[in-house]
Amino acid sequence: MPAEFGATPWGKAWLRTIEPTAVSRPNPLLPKARSLARNAAVTLRTAEAGRLDAEVSARGVVHRVAIEFPCWSGELSTEVAGLVADAAPVPGDLPDGLEATLTRRGADIAAPAGERAADCGCGAGDGPCAHVLAVLYAVVQRIDETPALAVELRCRAPLQAAADPDWIPLSDVPVEGFYGT
Ligand SMILES: [Zn+2]
């Protein structure tokens, strides 16, 4: 059975920013965040380059979450878009091996936690609250389902598979219907 979160190298790259292996004590909010994501409490409204918007319902209250993070440089984005066009035969999917290739070229698949700015309507203080973490877990799951999303979140250049006339950029697909929510 594949891992519930991070079943692909693409999802795993984002998972590592939520669950860093180097910390001695796990974040006590993580079990709650996982449970929210697992129980479909997260609705992703926007998932685009540099930005995520979502709603998280917890105990009957809906919290709006916005997460911003840097994209790759324009030059790196163009290079990545070329590699993706060469490598991706199926819209939305990406070969697992491409993740290592992109990382080697300096394209970190996930924005490091320290470079993310997150805002949640719950008004919790410092550090990401369980709702922000739940959105990130939900993104890991979406990326596992549709690895191209990992690149779309970080890439400034439009993604196209030159050889594939049926390629549809994910940004043209309504998030809600597409993810079956
Ligand atoms: Zn919150």
Automatic annotation (TrEMBL):
Residues 105-140 form the SWIM-type domain. It comes from Actinoallomurus vinaceus. This is SWIM-type domain-containing protein. InterPro entries: Znf_SWIM. It holds the Pfam family SWIM. Keywords: Metal-binding, Zinc, Zinc-finger.
